[in-house]
Structure formats: C-alpha cells, structure tokens
C-alpha cells in the first residue's frame, strides 16, 4: 500500500511537471516599435515578466489552464485578455497611447522635442538603473556626450561634479520637474545634498549649448532637465542593496500603491549610503527620502513631491599635491576628526498639469526649498584679528594667535512658482508655449567660533561674521514651432529674464559688504528643422544667453571695478537619425562668449583672488553620438567630441615675493586654451547578451589633456586618461517576486592612475644665493580610485 501511494505521488508530480507550458509574445506600440520594460502579469498567479529591448517577453513553467493576461506600460492603455494554455502561437500585443493625461507634460515646456532645432540627449530610467549602485548623478552620466565627471573622495560618493563641453556646474542650468535647482548665489549644483536621487528619476534630458528657454539660472554651456518618478498603475515594493570597495554601502527601500480607484497614487523611497572614500578619511554618511502622491485624472493631475537629503562628509577639498601623486595618492591634509561638511536640504513641490479643452494644456508648480548646514574646520595657530578679536593678555604675555575651531553656516529659503500654457492647432501645424516663473532666494551666511586653544573675550556660538542676501529672479518666455511645409518646421523662442540681487553685512574676511544689483536680459533663439521622411531630421539654430556674475564676483571684486555680466551666442547645426538598428546624432557647435569671467590671479584689497571679464573667447567643435545593434546579442554605442576652446587675450597676475614690497607680475596671454576644456572627449560601450536576461557591458572613456588655468602652460595640466569599466547585469523572475536582479560593476579594470580635476597657483620666490627669483608652481589634483567594484541585488515585489 505504501509503495502504491508513493508511486502514485511520483506519477502525479511527473504529470504536473509535463503539463506545464511557456507563454511567449511581443509588445509593440502602434508605430510598430518594440516597447522595453512593459509589465506582463498573469493575474492571480504571482507570475510575470518584463519585455526586453525588442519588446519580447516569456513566462516559463506555467501549469496548463485558463488565465487572464495583463500588460501595462507607462503612457499606454493597459491590455487584458483571457488565454488558454498551452498556447501554440506567439502573442502579438499592440498598445495604444493612453487617453489619460501623462505626467510628461510637467516638463514639456522646458524640453526639446524631435522637431526642436537644438542638440540634446535623453537618458532614460533604464539607462540610469544599470549603473545606479549608490554613486551620484554626475558619475552615472559620465558616458554621455561631452561629459567629464569627477569625485573629490575619488569613488563617486560624496562631493561629485561634472563638466559639459568644458562648462562646470555653475554654468549648467538644472531643473527638477521644471523647478530650478541651481543655488541662486553661486549657481552651483550640490548633488551630495540629494543622495540616491537617481533612484527617483524617470528620465533626464541634457541640452548642450543654450538649448531652449528654461527656469532659473542661465543656460550658459548646457542644461539638465530632470523628471522625477511617474506613478505606476500596479502596486509594488522594491529593496535595493549594494556594497563595494572602500566600505561603500547603499540600502534603499521603495514602495508604491499603484492607482487606487484608478485615480490616486502614492510612492515613497528611503535611502542610506555610506562610504570611507578612496582619499584618506574622506567618508560620506548620506540619508535621503522621496515622497510623491496625488490625483491622476483623465484631464487633470495634481501631485505633491517631497525630496529630502542630509549629508555629512569629511572634507577632501584640498586635493593631493603633485609631489605626492606617485607615493601617496590618498593623501588628505586634514586630520581633525570633525573636519566635516554637514548640510540638509528639503524640497517641496506642488504641481498641477491639465487639459484645458482639446487644444490647450496647462502646467503650474509651487515650490519651497529649505537648506541649512555648516562646515567645521580646525585652524592651527590662526590670527585672532581674522575673527575681530583683540589680542589676549595673560601674565604679561600678549597672545595674537591660537588654535581655533570654527563653523561656517548657510541658512536659506528658496521659493516661488513656475507655469506654462501649451496650444496646439487641430492640424498640428502650430505648437505654441507660453511660460515663466518667479522665484526668491533669502539666505543667511554666518560664522561661529566653537572652541579656542586660548580663551579670549568670546563665547561659544559667537558670530564673527554675518550677512544676508535676497535675490529675486523672474522670467517669461514664448516658444512657437510652425510647420511651414511638409517636414519643414520653423522655431522661435523668446525669453525675458530679470534679476534683482542685494546683500548686506560682514563677509567671512571681516569686510563690510553691501550691494544692490539689477539685470535685465533678453534671450532670443531661432532655428529650423527638416524631417526627410526616412528617419532623418536636419536642424540649425542660433541662440543667445546672458548670465549675471555669482556672489563672490560681487563681494570680492575691486571697489572701483564691478564685474560685468557674460554674454553667449550659440550656433548649433546637425542631423538626428533613427533607421532600424542604427541611430545617431552628428552636430557642429560654435559658442561665442563676450566678457566671460575667469580667474586671472588678480588680488582684491584684502588679498583674495578674483575673477575678471575677458573680452572674447569661444568654443567650437563637432559631436558624434551613435548606437548600432549588430545582432540580438551585440550592441555597440559611443560618442566623440572634438573641439577648440580659446581665450583670445587675457592678463595673468603672478604674486611676487622676491621683492621687499610685495607686487604682482603682469603677463599678457593670447590665443590660449580655456581651462578644463579637453580637445577630445569620447566614450564607447559594447553590450553583449549571451543569453536571456544576462548582459555584459564594457564601458570605455577617454579624456584628452586639460589645462588647470588659462595660460596653456603644460606644467599646469591634467594629463589625458582612458578608463575601462566592466558591468554584469542578470535578472531572474522567480515565482515569489516580480523581478530579482544582480549587478556587478568593476571600475577601472586596468587600474589606471588618473586625475580628472585639480587646481593650480604660482608665485615668485627669491633665488637663494642670488639677486634673482624663481617661479614656483603648485598643482593639486583629485585622484580617482584604481580598480574597485560595486555589487548590488535588487528585489521587486
């Protein structure tokens, strides 16, 4: 009897195993394009899949029977169908565009379309996710055209930055959902204040050059338009953990409600990142969260976003002296245990977008950002006079110097609103956008003494400087695209921008400062594009941008020499093509600057280095960006930038300590390269998919020589470098979860020693034993890590 029951059980199990089938199919749009990442689910079974690069999907080992298949994709109508397994045929599913209002219109007004005659690159969430193991957005964008990224701590966590076409973050406009992100005074973008923000990004559009009108800081080299996560129709949960070299850890939890009653949706993310850094003691302790939720109707969307980040990083700002690069690449001059930067920034966004009839759409957003924090420094044997303190007299001894620990604070509020209206004619020949924004920055700058080696007439938290600043920024723009004839589109974009900026108080160098400045800018843009009908779009445009000086240009300038605003005239011309397995963009650019502000070595009245306007400078070059699918298993992609970046004439000032009375040597330079502007930037990526859901990628990056200043002096230069990274991605779809994904990223596999960033200064000293002098140049570099790795596991429920 026991044997019979046992044999029957084996027979039933075997029968069950044989009575299982696989479901295969392809998901396409109405245009015939395969849709990557469509969500495929057999309702009630916990089984599902996601479509691959060509829209193909497969669900294996399904017991025979009747099921309800559901397929969904953002921006498209969901598909549902009863199926009977076994199903001998491969399903062909075509999804229609959704009749519901999509969230993409939130960023539509400040973005370029395929018909816009400007140079841009779209980076999708799937592209970001492949590399997202806790490093900041600048590092994740390293392989996009004309980008050079860097990290102070050398491992991509903590303070990071990027340059596009040689323009740094202060000249790159960044918006989140159309809302300005750049600091109003410095124009900088501090990604460290938004840890793991990449995990909440839907896509990024990067404009190179002036691009189209946007909100906030001037687009003076490039712009980055970021859209945060869109709602998902299905409820989900996600856990993402990664670890790697330098004790790097990242932990992320993300949940979403899906659409409740087909109208309401809520999503949340909580992240923590820590790293010891490649540079000594350059640790990072980063925390953040992202909350979003709202009402998603057929004609109206109202949503609230909260983005919060808190960071503590040990300072690695000083760089490594050139003399130590070969012997101690991880050198950090700071040893005080709390030489840290501490900052928290909270962003609140209330956004509306809606259809106003058949031809009109509207978008509006209110925002508020609260930022506060400080960096702490130990100052050995510092002058008391630097803090407005009198010498200390003890037992007849006068003390004018002592060890001091200080904190320098920022406490600021940034708030305002943005809006846009879009009108499209029934025949789609006219597309008109009118929009703008009004924003105010209100910031307090102050410094505290929290400890002294020798106590003086001061109390803890006494402020040795304090000043306030208020900046109002208003802009209005109108854009129109007109189809003049079949395939020929004319484009015009006119923007007015007004800035009122004032500050008053005592600066950190103990100088009384007071200023009140107004700027009124008109920024026109004109162009045309032509669609040939065979997948090609030709375009040409002319654009103007104007940019006000930053805070330090005003506060540090000579009393009798107020810095002038900068002007940029930009020509872009190129071709975009999408033909079958080949896509590419080839373009020419010319950027002519008037009164660009650059460091010259000139000193102000208290010995601080200032920037000065140079009359004429330019950037010109070509950019190539292409991808080709050789076969279902092999894809190659890459980009190349060749450029000339020149200052026609400027005056360099070099400190001269070889004479009794300090002076500055004056040298006039002509036709020199602009600092941090390599002539060659390139990237190449080879993707190999040996079997389903497994991908191996070789990522290569080359950056040519970069000069540290504008003198084109080869003794003040960053050497060219090439890096090679290896990435492995493998996804499983077991029964108990929607997706299980493993990622391994090996950076710098050939252990190249390279430095993408640095700074320099020079001075004359007496030549010992003679009446002559010698020029001393000190270069400091930010070395990046040798071979290192990051590995992650992502589980989606």
UniProtKB/TrEMBL annotation:
Main location: membrane
Signal peptide residue numbers: 1-19
Keyword annotations from UniProtKB, A to Z: Cell outer membrane, Ion transport, Iron, Iron transport, Membrane, Receptor, Signal, TonB box, Transmembrane, Transmembrane beta strand, Transport
Subcellular compartments: Cell outer membrane
PROSITE patterns in UniProt: TONB_DEPENDENT_REC_3 (PS52016)
InterPro entries: Beta-barrel_TonB, Beta-barrel_TonB_sf, CarboxyPept-like_regulatory, Plug_dom, Plug_dom_sf, TonB-dep_rcpt-like
Gene Ontology MF terms in the entry: siderophore uptake transmembrane transporter activity
Residue span, TonB-dependent receptor-like beta-barrel domain: 328-749
Transmembrane spans: none
Cellular compartments per GO CC: cell outer membrane
Topology in membrane: Multi-pass membrane protein
Domain TonB-dependent receptor plug: 114-221
Family (UniProt): Belongs to the TonB-dependent receptor family.
This protein's name: TonB-dependent receptor
Species whose genome carries this gene: Aquiflexum gelatinilyticum
Lineage of origin: Bacteria, Pseudomonadati, Bacteroidota, Cytophagia, Cytophagales
